[in-house]
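Predict the assembly for these two chains.
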Amino acid sequence: MVGTNPVPGNLSMEELAATLTNEEQLGFERLTALAVDPAQPRNLATFVADPAQLGALLICASGSTGSGDKILSTTAYVSGAPIKIDLYRLKRGK
Amino acid sequence: MRLLNDCRILLAVFSIALLPATGCRNTLGPKMPPALGAPSITVYKASEFTEDLKNYRAAIAAGELVRAKALRNQMAYRVMVDIEADYSRFEMSLTTQRAGFETGADTVQLGISAAATLVGATEVKDMLTASLTAFQGTRLSLDKNFFREKTTESIISQMRASRKTKQAELITSLGTRDVREYTWDSAWIDLVDFYYAGTVPSALVEIASSTGTKADRATTTLSNAVKALTPRTAAQAKQAVDIRSTYEKLAAEATGSDASKAASAAQTLKKILNGAGYKTTDDESAADLLEKLRAAMRAAKDDNDKLASLNAAIEAADPQ
């Protein structure tokens, strides 16, 4: 949903990427920010409306090489712990 | 004879019951020093006010802005003093009168109740019981209609808070803004607001509004809790991408210039929607069908079953 939404902090990198991708694809949105919730162990994802279909998201540990375009470097809760991650956007159709 | 005895009992009970309802005023505050309570010190007479206002207008006309500011502030502070003095008396009388009424009402209720128990004659007993019910109803009605069942403390507390806020704004404006920016008329509007902040209706509105704000905040918190994203697997994310790709393809075809492709896309949209459990009608346009599919996608966003159902309907209707 457009705006800032909590995302569970216990997801793996793959599940976190899948959850954010699902939101973008079916909600006609674009992820603009991902951050740790200062109040509890979870993440806060911010979306804006975007009528164009975007490629799926991929999350890698910070510094490792991912495919696609890097769109964000941030700290997020992954599997219950805050770690530095990079978010990539894959090309459409991949 | 028995009726006469009953009446004597009634009189005795009422007399004893009404005793505590008298004279509680001096227990609520110390005696006010005569100088503080003297009206001649605080009251801003209409003739003095008119004279000051005339001088203020003359100072403005002459361009004597510093003098005008001094006059504006003098008038505002004198009016403020009057409001302050009147409010203090009002607050005290609100407490004493309401407490007095409540005590008196309690006493009457207890008295009638006791009398109804003691009297022997059935007719008198019935009459007293009916009177008690009517009295209790009237008392509740008064409390509801005048005070909205709020305690005196909560009303006074709200009035004080609102008054302090208005007073702080007023004093800041008087101290920091000149007469061009903050004219006497502006100050007068703020003084009127300051006066009304110390009234029961205003306090009741503030209390209700504050309750509404708290409820809004609670709703937002609840809403935020509900809006947490539903965790998805990689396979479900792929389904989401496929669904969206199909939507994009059908949208392009349905709104494109090729009529046969548009008709085919509309048919596919109907199949998908029907397959996913959504009803369609023959008179729906391609735009209507696309909007329905978007709504189905949004519904599938947070619902595993709907996602699976929509994905299956797409695979069945539009095999890639």
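The two ends of chain A are 24 Å apart (CA to CA). The beta strands of chain A are 3-8, 29-36, 42-49, 57-61, 69-78, 81-89.
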